[in-house]
Amino acid sequence: MIDIRNITKEFDGNYVLAGVSETIRKGEIFAIIGPSGQGKTTLLRILGLLERPTSGQVLLEGRSIIHLSDNDPVRRRIGMVFQNHIAFKDSVYNNIAIGLRYRRFGKDEIKKKLLQKLDEIGLTGYENRKATTLSGGEKQRVSLARVMITGPDILILDEPTANLDPVSTEVIENLIRYYNKELGTTVIMSTHDLVQGQRLADRVAVMMNGRFIQSGTIFDVFTRPCSVDVAKFIGIGNILPGKIIRKENGLSVILTHDIEIHAISDIPEGTMVRLAIRPEEITLYTGPAQLSSARNVISGTVTDIRPFGIISLIGVKSGDLNLSAQVTWQSINELDLKPGIQVVLSFKAPSVHIMQEGNHHGCL
Amino acid sequence: MTDLLTGIQTAIGLILAADPEVMNITFNTLRITFSSVLLSTIIAIPLGSAITFRNFLGKKALISLIQTLYALPTVIVGLLCYMLLSRSGPLGELKWLFTPNGMIFGQTILIIPIMTGLSIAALQAIDPVITDTIRSLGASRLQFLKSHLREARFAIMAAVIVGFSRAISEVGTAIMIGGNIKGHTRVLTTAISLQTSMGNFNLSLALGIILLAIALIINLFMGIVQNR
After folding, report:
1. What is the pLDDT of residue A361?
2. B143/A150 Cβ within 8 A
3. In this complex, do A88 and B130 lie within 8 Å of one another by their Cβ atoms?
4. What CATH number is associated with residue A45?
5. A218 and A244 belong to one structural domain
6. Least crowded by CB within 10 Å, which of A244, A337, B123, B181?
């Protein structure tokens, strides 16, 4: 539906966008994730027709949309909600009606559509309230209604739940899902909340240094990061350097810090690689190394316990190798874990993700 | 202190008695001030909008110049208008010197800078996200402008009040262009000036109190509109 072709954007000699390409499909929720200040907002503003790219093309159904005038009809097919919660100094009713008034809808029609939208966003009865007195979450719901009442084909959301409490966030997320599933609106959003990206999106793209360095389904990106930077960003706690030393029964054997680790990979033998292992995929137990279906079993010593709410990350050292494993507070008590005691770590070969070394600076 | 009290008593007496001369002066003042505020509003708001929303070379310098003209001395405006409107001046044909029209002309010029400048400030104070929202909702040029003016309406109303206050309270332009002709171009400020020079402090004070009362009523009215 939208073809983004090698978009760049320069501000005062700095390239905020350094060549972004992607195809966004009709009816999907496409999320852009990435650290702050990497160009997410700039890209969304270009797609929302508020900014023009320095070079490159954006095609909507094959037609270029980067040089449209302010009153081009295409503009009315694309709606945008911003990160900062704003409201016009006016009633909730007038706040939501504004887009329909621009489109010269009649009074009765506006009223009918408006009451329905108020019901959708759960603010029935609020029409005469001053919108500036609403809470942040309520303002953001009004912002969504203001855009959606005009029936756009594409909804662009720039960090729509940043600075909102968890309850308001859930309401907004449910509305996004509703508009996408029930009305078929294509949603393009940015978020720095990885979990939100996973909850909502059909596909995600990781933006770093003004480029998409990886894009794909949630599963692809979150289990198979293409570089160490992506792996770190999506929260994979164990990243180790190594070398594929041989292939064995369809598995690759990687040597890291004098320890052999089995993994599934088609990267050829002899290649320098990085391994990524999620702490939640590692099982930790005490006592003798039991029979385990896991291909990788490593003994080591507990070095530290870092609590993260009800789960903790346990640091384990085996020779020069340091790994983190995720353990619940119950297990910590049952196993009587404390620094210095001997433990065994096990994880399956498919839990080890292998990335080629020297590919840090971009996968796409 | 007794002078002040007597002045207040005189003022109330004059208002209650509907003194014809005081009524005439007050009516002239209102007519001239409202006319110049209206004219100036019609010029200053579009001008302020154009300066705010268009990008051109020297925009910052122009805004600085407008802000400098806030302090435009009323007698300088009076002098300039006198030269323009005098029989041999470029606008002498209008025969506006020593007429209420001439005073409206002068006061309009006097308050255009401050009303334009405050309109620019009002529009520039709008959250850029509001501007983005208006644009992305597909507003036409005129809708874009109307929505911004509506969003800034309270600050723009304040600009109008400031313009009104400057016009109703100034004496330099009124006396140089109007000439303080009784029953014709005499307004509250010029009358106060005259009565004071003649030693009629009570009447001066009374006229001053009427002037302030008008300003108070206008401000109260605007306050009610703003709080709606």
Report:
1. 46
2. no
3. yes
4. 3.40.50.300
5. no
6. B181
Q: Give the minimum alpha-carbon distance from B224 to chain A in angstroms, rounded to a whole number.
A: 16
Provide the token pair at A28: 């999907």
Q: Name the residue ranges covered by the structural domains of chain B.
A: 32-182+209-227
Cα–Cα dist B210/A10, whole Å? 61
How far does B146 lie from chain A, in Å, by closest CA? Answer: 11
Q: What is the pLDDT of residue A358?
A: 66
A80 with A202, same domain: the answer is: yes
- CB contact A47 to B (< 8 Å): no
Do A346 and A262 fall into the same domain? yes
Regarding beta strands A186-191 and A29-33, do their DSSP bridges make them parallel or antiparallel, or are they unpaired? Answer: parallel
- How many domains does one find in chain A? 2
A42 in contact with B, Cβ within 8 Å: no
Q: State pLDDT tens for residues B25-35.
A: 999 999 999 99
Give the Cα separation of B23 and B55 in Å (integer): 48
CA dist., res. A75 & res. A43, Å (int): 16
What CA–CA distance (Å, rounded) separates B8 from A184? 73
DSSP A211-243: EEEEEEEHHHHHHS-SSHHHHHHTT--EEEEEE
ipTM of the complex: 0.85
Do B154 and A89 count as a contact with CB atoms less than 8 A apart?
yes
Rounded to whole angstroms, the Cα distance separating A320 from A174 reads 47
Instruction: Check A102 against B143: CB less than 8 A apart.
Output: yes
pLDDT greater than 90 at residue B13? no
| CATH for the B32-182+209-227 domain, from 1.10.3720.10, 3.40.50.1220, 3.90.1150.10, 1.10.10.60 | 1.10.3720.10
Cα–Cα distance, B227 to A74 (Å, whole number)? 39
Indicate yes or no: CB of A48 within 8 angstroms of CB of B150.
Answer: no
Residue B200 pLDDT grade (very low, low, confident, very high; cuts 50, 70, 90) = confident
Those residues whose C-beta lies under 8 Å from the C-beta of residue A269, and which sit 6 or more positions away, are: A244, A245, A246, A247, A252
Q: Are residues A258 and A218 in the same domain?
A: no
Spell out the SS3 assignment of B27-83: HHHHHHHHHHHHHHHHHHHHHHHHHHHCCCCCHHHHHHHHHHHHHCCHHHHHHHHHH
Under-50 pLDDT residues of chain A: 361
Q: Cβ of B136 and A103 within 8 Å?
A: no
**Residue B7 in this model has a pLDDT that exceeds 80:** no
Chain B residue at shortest CA distance from A151: B137
Calpha distance A54→A40 (Å, rounded): 16
